[in-house]
Write a structure and sequence with these properties.
Length: about 325
Amino acid sequence: MNTSAPIKPVLVTGAPRSGTTWLGRMLTIDPALYYVHEPFNPLVKASEELYGLRIPPYFIHICADNGMDYRAAVQRLIDGRYDWQHGLGAARSPGDLSKVIRNLLAVRKLRGNGGRPLIKDPIALMSAEWLSDQFDMNCIVMIRHPAAFVASMKRLGWASHPEKWALSQPLLMRDYLGPFEQRIKAMSGSEHDLVERASLAWTMHHHVISLYRKRHPEWTFVRHEDISLDPVQSFADLYKKLGLPYTDKARSVIAEHTGKSNPERASGTEKTLKLDSAQNISSWKHRLSGEEILRIRGYVEDVAREFYSDADWDLGQSATA
């Protein structure tokens, strides 16, 4: 007789570019969990088509004050149930009805053999407390070095615009981001470059993560760098904590995705999951200039010191001129 506790649904979140995709994919090798990609991202329309989950702003803050607007749709997502009402209500042609059937099959395929969802979504960071409270989820929060975050944003050409998504959410400003109101408002000017914008984004996200660490000792908080140094053992620990079997297959796949035969860092705009994880830790030292690194530390230090020491900023001989 199996007396082990049932597997809970899992939320993997953190700031964007912090390794949440890598973590989520490596945790869903076993079919006990199935991977759900960013249902709280407004650009991922599958969330609305499959579950009726419509998310207007980036980094939406769902809480007790507005949770009833989203609870039913998120419950369908957690349960792996297709939203027939939404699908049929949107159908206007035989082609639309065919799409309803395809969406139903897609949900069933995701659910597989009765596994539980692992929701990988950095965009859900500001709603993590509500998700944990309402749906009894195991929350795993990724933390990544601010210079590595900025270097990744710079490589992809992603500029953060909190003046668009934060200031439009009074509940988010009230609960989490009030201390940053003036800095966010200042970002409306064009004189702020990507490095400054990304640094502010890192600070805001990790300020919230810092609040979570104080409030939720039952959650799992992991630094990208710590997992990367010893991924096979780090994932063994995470599998155990989640109640998942750490099979030979899981160990093999993780070793394949993180071993020394892989590239040391991603190139251009690629988003590869296969990297030499130990070497990738310091890739920011090659992508950023010494001047940029000093600027980043100046922008983020008040929050960064909670996660990273002076030694974690050591440049050695790697930073570009």
